[in-house]
């Protein structure tokens, strides 16, 4: 394990003159994942490299000369920065004739975004207020949900999951078990996952008749399940409560088996801003094409984002009117690994 040392307080950005010298020399142990993350952060920490990454995000692909034309840097300097970014796994380059064409590395960027989100999940936007809200309404949630949208939303979700009787699945952001109640009679095992103890307590009551259900009190950004362990994940009205939807989708894709399906139901993009205050929504719904792009960035294939034919309706308790928002269903499949080509 390499050692990470701070030579003095000034280098560390610490003004205190009373640091213990022995403590300064003590190595900081890092996991391979942390080492990779630090390399990426260090690479992005230079203004020129940050500008290059932004330019590649906008243009898609370019050669070194294109960057030189828009940044006040010599070609040799740009080449050195491109090398650092490539070694960090943030960009990739393909030789095309006499030049190398550069673009962002999709896998590297996706990993960076997902990993950053996981480490910062403890400061999830809106989490304290949201958790307090769901703790307060847990006992009434089933009645509240029934007034907002019908069981047809669950039917639309299950129809697209294509589940067999031997399947092992998860209901992420399960709440009181609305989706799980449809899953439990159909499959071998259901993981009911939510970060609200109060909502899970109600889910246990609702699902007490089923012996194939396990409950996990956990943040959906760090699912307590191994890689490639599930045949399907269903998440209903969960995505608009997380700060980083792409990271959440990546995490759900992680635990899918090859051939497994991710099925998400949520609201279309809307303008009912009072839902942020009254229901503690982080996102005002989503654009369908954005959801499609997130699924594909997470490595899912055969992605479809469709209208369920149902709406989510809610009345403002502060007299701000009624919200009526179309509910979409997004489906994607984790691809089977490609067979290795013969030498």
Explain what this protein looks like in three dimensions.
By secondary structure, this protein is of the alpha/beta class. The chain has two domains: 23-104, Arc Repressor Mutant, subunit A, CATH 1.10.10.10; 126-333, 3-Layer(aba) Sandwich (Rossmann fold). It has helices at residues 9-12, 21-25, 32-44, 47-59, 64-70, 75-87, 106-119, 127-137, 141-148, 152-161, 180-183, 197-206, 245-254, 274-278, 288-297, and strands at residues 62-63, 91-96, 99-104, 168-172, 189-194, 213-217, 230-236, 256-267, 301-315, 322-333. Helix 13 links the parallel strand 7 (230-236) and strand 8. Helix 4 (47-59) crosses helix 6 (75-87), helix 5 (64-70) packs across helix 6 and helix 7 (106-119) packs across helix 13 (245-254). Mean pLDDT is 85; it is low at 1-23 and 121-128.
